[in-house]
Amino acid sequence: MDKVKLAVYWAGACGGCDIAIVELGEHLLELAQVADIVFWPCAMDFKLADVEAMSDGYIDITLFNGSIRTDEDLHVAKLLRSRSRALIAFGSCATEGCVPGLSNVRGSDYALERAYLEAPGTENTQGMLPGRASNLPDSLHLPGLRPQVRALQDVVTVDAFVRGCPPNYEQVWKAINQLLTEGLPRSGERLLGVDPRSLCDQCPRVRIGKIRVPRFKRIHEAIPDSEQCFLEQGFICAGPATHAGCSAACIKANMPCRGCYGPPEGVRDQGSAILDAVVAGFAGQNDAAIQEALASIVDPIGTFYRYSYAVSLLNQLAEHRNAQPEAVAVHAEPKR
Ligand code: SF4
Ligand code: SF4
Predict the structure, then answer these.
(1) pLDDT in tens, 192-245
(2) How many angstroms does the Cα of residue 259 sit away from the middle of ligand 2?
(3) Per-residue pLDDT tens for 28-44?
(4) Domain ranges of the chain
(5) How far is the CA of 296 from the centre of ligand 1 (A)?
(6) Does the beta carbon of 261 sit less than 6 angstroms from any atom of ligand 1?
(7) Rounded (5°) CA angle 269-245-258
(8) How far is the CA of 167 from the centre of ligand 2 (A)?
(9) Helices then strands (H, E): number in the chain?
(10) Class of domain 4-99+145-182
């Protein structure tokens, strides 16, 4: 039987998704019996020219991790789309833009200024920003930053999604097996390797259904009780608006969920759904008390949209406003 041709690519990401694949450990040996890796530049010596030389549809499955941050990310996404029979958005950056997508709030130019000129600990007395070309003999050209970070499905057609930052290795193995034995999901559910519930449904913590404190704390300000619901103790937890799939990894380590598995089925905008759950926890309290509690949340966009800002309605609205200053309408159709 012919082996499956498998590719793995890393675009605008931190490398954690590639590590999640390496974490498969001895399963990699099982994988090697049924699949040939034909492109994985992060781990093996492949060049882009290798993919350019392939015919369309040559690769059976590509696991594409990372957001579309640079012109090169966009070019490779289009190239791998044409060369792959199945293109899988792998990990939170590819499925939703993840943390790189937060730079859309102020744009790429500001992100560079913030990182190279203003960030605490940065010493850049000459005020230098990264250029795109060097004067070295073998001139080095860097790809340009795109004005907005995009998720993979916003630039090419995606066949299925593996969520998580990074995806948990058991889920990765489940997703790869699902692809190898059953092929692509035929219709409806296109999330691979996950449980259809929300994280709260998997969470072992005790809930009473109401937030018991007047203000929110950040995790470094107090040690949470290890049995009670984080949200009810006053730590923002994204569990009510997050897809299950990680086996409550952070919760078990006494850390609130930040939402990296994206929204559950039927939820279009994860950030507003987390906010909804927070407000619902104050049911019965007056508006002033709720507003005071909400005002205690530091960095609301980073808290509610840490993983999903690039695909959020808020980002869509901001883009629309920038394009047409008088308009406030958003697209009615969800993109996911
Ligand atoms: S909000 Fe967080 S801590 Fe509370 S039940 Fe849901 S996942 Fe568990
Ligand atoms: S608990 Fe939340 S943030 Fe942690 S791995 Fe699971 S989905 Fe991601």
Answers:
(1) 877 778 899 989 999 998 898 899 999 999 999 999 999 999 999 999 999 998
(2) 6
(3) 999 999 999 999 999 99
(4) 4-99+145-182, 199-323
(5) 20
(6) no
(7) 50
(8) 9
(9) 14, 7
(10) alpha beta
